[in-house]
User: What shape does this take?
Amino acid sequence: MSDNAEPVSGNCLCGSVRYEVDQFARGVVGCHCEQCRKTSGHYVAATKATHDNLRMISDKTVKWYRSSDIAERGFCSECGSNLFWRRIGEDATSIMAGALNNPTGLALQSHIYTDDMGDYYELHDDVPTYPQSG
Assistant: This one.
C-alpha cells in the first residue's frame, strides 16, 4: 500500500491514547472471530501498520491483554477503547479502523472468520469473505 499523503491520526474515546500512522500495510479487514466479537461488541474492522510506520504520541493509558498464546490486544485503561491487536513477535500492529480520524483513504478489503460471525447480522457488501483467516 502506498504512503499516505500526510500521517493519519487516531485516538481513543477520551484522547489519552493518541498515535499517527505514516503508511498502512493493508486496507481494512473485518474479523468476525469470537474473540474480536467479545472485545468489540460486534466485529472488528482493522487495518495494519508496521511498527516503523506507527508512532505513539501519547500512550500512558495503553494496556495490553494477552488474549491467546499468539496475540495480545491493546486498549485504553481510562475509557476502555479497543485500539490494537498484535501477534507476538510480529513487526506490525493491527489498528482498529474506527479509532482513526478521517480522512483515512482506506477501504474494506475482506471479511475473515465468517464461520464464527454472530447470528444477528448478515453481510451484504461485495468484499471477499473467508470462513477462517484470509
The longest helix spans residues 34-40. The beta strands are 8-11, 18-21, 26-31, 44-50, 54-58, 62-66, 71-76, 82-87, 92-96, 108-112. Residues 27 and 107 are 6 Å apart (CA to CA).
